[in-house]
Amino acid sequence: MGVENILFIVALAVGIGLFARQVRRIARNVRLGRDEDRSDRKAERWGVMARVALGQGKMVVRPVAGIMHILIYVGFVLINLEVLEIIIDGIFGTHRVLSFLGGFYDLMIAVFEWLALGVVVACVVFLARRLVIRIPRFKGREMTSWPKRDAVYILLIELVLMGALLKMNAVDQLLQERGAEHFVKAGSFPVSSWLTPFFAGMDTGTLLVLERVYWWAHILGILAFLNYLPISKHFHIILAFPNTWYSKLEPRTQVRNMPRITEEVKLMMDPSADPYATPAEGDGAPPERFGARDVQDLSWKSLLDAYTCTECGRCTSECPANLTGKLLSPRKIMMDTRDRLEEVGRNIDANNGTFQDDGKALLGDYISEEELWACTTCNACTQACPVNIDPVAIIMDMRRNLVMEESRPRPALTTMLTNVENNGAPWQFAQSDRMKWTEE
Amino acid sequence: MTTRVPTMSELTASGETPEVLFWVGCAGSFDDRARKITKAFVKLMHHAGVKFAVLGTEESCTGDPARRAGNEFLFQMQALQNIQVLNGYGVRRIVTACPHCFNTIRNEYPELGGSYEVLHHSQFLNTLLREGRLKVEGGSFRGKRITFHDPCYLGRGNGEYEAPRELLSKLDAELVEMKRSRAQGLCCGAGGAQMFKEAEPGDREVNIARSEEALGTAPAVIAAGCPFCNTMMTDGVKHFEKEGEVAVKDLAELIAEAADL
Description:
Chain A is an all-alpha fold. Chain A folds into 2 domains: about 5-30 and about 60-245; about 260-265 and about 290-430, Fumarate Reductase Iron-sulfur Protein, Chain B, domain 2 (Orthogonal Bundle). Chain A has 18 helices and no strands. The N and C termini of chain A lie far apart (about 95 Å). Chain B has helices at about 10-15, 25-30, 30-45, 65-70, 70-90, 100-110, 120-130, 160-170, 205-215, 225-240, 250-260; strands spanning about 20-25, 50-55, 95, 115-120, 145-150, 175, 220-225, 245-250. The longest helix of chain B is centred in the N-terminal third of the chain and has 17 residues, at about 70-90. Chain B starts with 7 loop residues before the first helix and ends with a helix. At the A-B interface, helix 9, helix 12, helix 17 and helix 18 of A face helix 2, helix 3, helix 4, helix 5 and helix 6 of B.
């Protein structure tokens, strides 16, 4: 085993180790949310995941972006098979270890090269949409400097990775032709062969060095990219799968029940309940607050949603409130939730595993009341989201906190609520007049 | 003119059971415009010989606006009281002309102990037509342009896009779709308790945006399937001063008119 193999094994171990640590941090943060059972109806959940994440079913609602996205997605998934070969070669010092597959190997490499070209084309189109055409969906109050740069970095990194792969193959095939040591004749190179003229004039020694440079650039690039994912919106390539599996399966407009309140209301309505009964022995913990003021009050699924969001803005571009100039942007709700959750996570890390009150909260410091009260709960956002994120769940939880903990609904809503309470209708009409329409 | 509508308590007192309970809803009971929808639907049910009843003064708000305004206590008090009444009468089948009542009773009551078969009136009317209990032939709407505005709580919320369109197809009218329809339909702006508050600051009102889109199809009629959408679209049409040329009508009103009722 040569020095190069040892270096590779160290790089691989460090890269994967650091990634695992970041994944654990994110999993810990998601678990800060409240319990919610989303493990029922498993068969249906696999179906949703297969359709929405694996099959990209909701992406193609917008054909241009959808088809380009599928190109990158399929390219990345399949080209990872070649990464498997690179890892084996790197550990054992072999070269193109899978080449014994013969004709199938040739076909495989040819397909990967075409896919790599597809990825390059799609990345260029995506960059143009963001930087040249400037599609309105990618703008907005929440699209500040970092989210914009993040998107561009991802596309550039993908271009660099595909470039390294194709250049590596171009040099490799020249070395194969020249019969260089170790370079077995293997693979067919329909795309990288266009690049060989650039390298043909170089001597074999230079090519041997270049081949190594591109090989290392490709694999180190992939390891670096892997560790970029968890701090980037690009983490959606992994979380899209669990997030769709845990999708809300109930009708979109069904609001999640609060069983604790059901118990209390039932007790209130029960004529045989003893009004002077002492509460059952609890563990002395203060009762859970109603609704959500901060990220820890949200369901863990809302927190997973926040990490899954890739800031595409399909939600915001269909939101009636946003379209008519209101402050609300469902994408911002998700980004704020993630940013606050990251802040809370850092706070916990800095304080030996317990959260120290920092005087801030998701409600107020990140998301304003004006945004929350602009929502019509029409669910255009949940319909539009390609990975089944639910911003309405967060909005509802925060409205519940505003009303039940802070007693701060919009003034007109106070009137409506009083009417419902006093006369069983949102307007000031007497319940005894409910049949008046039959008399006119 | 009075409309003869039996209540559950009357029917129960005489030992009878209706085939369906008509949940009138607050808008349907109190709102001037929505009461016309209620009456049109009742006429259709009488005409088809449907044995139905209402809860009358025993009906109370489903709690939808309270829940969406964040007051879960009030929602559950309303829900549990209504469920007590409904279960007390042994109600199994409910029809309503309001997608918000429809959504709440259908989806949110079962967890609280109230499980019923719940139908939107467009679904119910289709059943009557299919069973031949109701007959409609184009009538005054033949060849007219009609566009349908999908209520969020019926369409996106509960996946019902076809029933209203199937009903409209009976009018022999020219059904024109807006650019954003079905799953992509734009909200009228009333949902999520917005109906009962001022809109938050913005460039324009949601109902103006939606009405503009509806008017863009040059319709004679904008069809609605929700009393709140109806109000919002009516106001929007007035905003563009088109109320002389374009009518906003509920599905039940269109069918009743076509059936000459």
